[in-house]
Amino acid sequence: MKKAIYLLILVFCYLPLQVSASNIHSNSYNDNNNPDVIVKHVYEQANLKGILDYQVFKDGYNAYYKTKGRRKQLLTIIDYSKPSTEKRFFVIDLKANKLVYNTYVSHGVNSGGRTASRFSNTVNSRKTSLGTFLTDTTYYGGNGYSLKLDGLTRGVNDNARRRYIVIHGADYATESFINRHGYLGRSWGCPALPKGLSRQIIDMIKGGSVIYAHA
Q1: Residues 177-199: pLDDT tens digits?
Q2: Residues 6+ apart with CB under 8 A from 122
Q3: Which of 167, 160, 214, 156 is nearest to 190 (CA)?
Q4: How many CB atoms lie within 10 A of CB 202?
Q5: What is the fold, at CATH topology level, of the domain defined by 2-214?
Q6: Which of 42, 64, 67, 161 has its C-alpha lying 20 to 30 A from 154's C-alpha?
Q7: What one-character-per-residue DSSP string does 158-173 give?
Q8: 194 has which bridge partners?
Q9: What is the pTM of this model?
Q10: Cα distance between residue 58 and residue 71, in whole Å
């Protein structure tokens, strides 16, 4: 009898957390229903500690819920505060609270060498843009299978279409390139991924998922 009562108490104590977690994945998001306790819960469930800085995750998490038009419960965070020799591209499934991909990603040739320190929204700058993006459709171009991006942060990345900033695969975005040269190869501003992973990542995040680029 005592054991049954104890189990009932555990169930009722656990339910509020489940309801809260469900609510934050709804479309009726606002700043008041996204307390730190929920952000920390998702961060811990996804085992991001020691992999992705908590504040960077929190900023990306908030950007996700403030983005209109999102159609997938996926959040991609690119942490350009890390050097290119570190895996700084994160795809997080917010429905399952799980880190799905963590890999290398390039920055623009004029943004810096090993570490990106200069960013731009200017056409032909060949620099990386920061801010919030929404993924769109795919196509085949000069860099192969690529994903179009819409920049949503005014004055920071809203020239993404005019600059042809897309996600694509590249031979210079690999660990073997790092081993040979001591840093990752650089793009003309696009977040280029390892060719062996680019297609499957693109297919997962295409069609209305949020990307948050931080530095």
Answers
A1: 999 999 999 999 999 999 999 99
A2: 159, 163
A3: 167
A4: 19
A5: L,D-transpeptidase catalytic domain-like (2.40.440)
A6: 42
A7: TTTTTTT-EEEEETTS
A8: 170
A9: 0.86
A10: 20
